[in-house]
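pasting for the record
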Amino acid sequence: MAVVDPIADMLTRIRNAHLALQKEVVVPRSKAKKAIAEILQEQGYVLSVTEGERELTLTLKYVGRKPAISGLKRKSRCGLRQYVGVDEIPQVQNGLGICVLSTSKGIVDGEKAKQMHVGGELMCEIW
């Protein structure tokens, strides 16, 4: 069966792998997924991102037996896109999480979008 929302599928795979305490998760590769995975690595939510020919392998990070990612939420979906201006970029979990935006300057986290002074499509929140 075809995947309708590839970003939501990636977030669900990460969530399920954390619940099963798996070391790695494999997701089909795309430019958007790679950009999100690199943001997760920069922010310290995953240990590493390995790019294969057709897939991305994310090595998940744990603190003891608890996952580094407490929650993932897809905000803008296929049926209801959610756009925010630079002044409307949300603060996730009182600053303890990040939001990922698709802007005209690429896929960036909320803090970089504020620094670049651009808004965009609010893709997901991670905390």
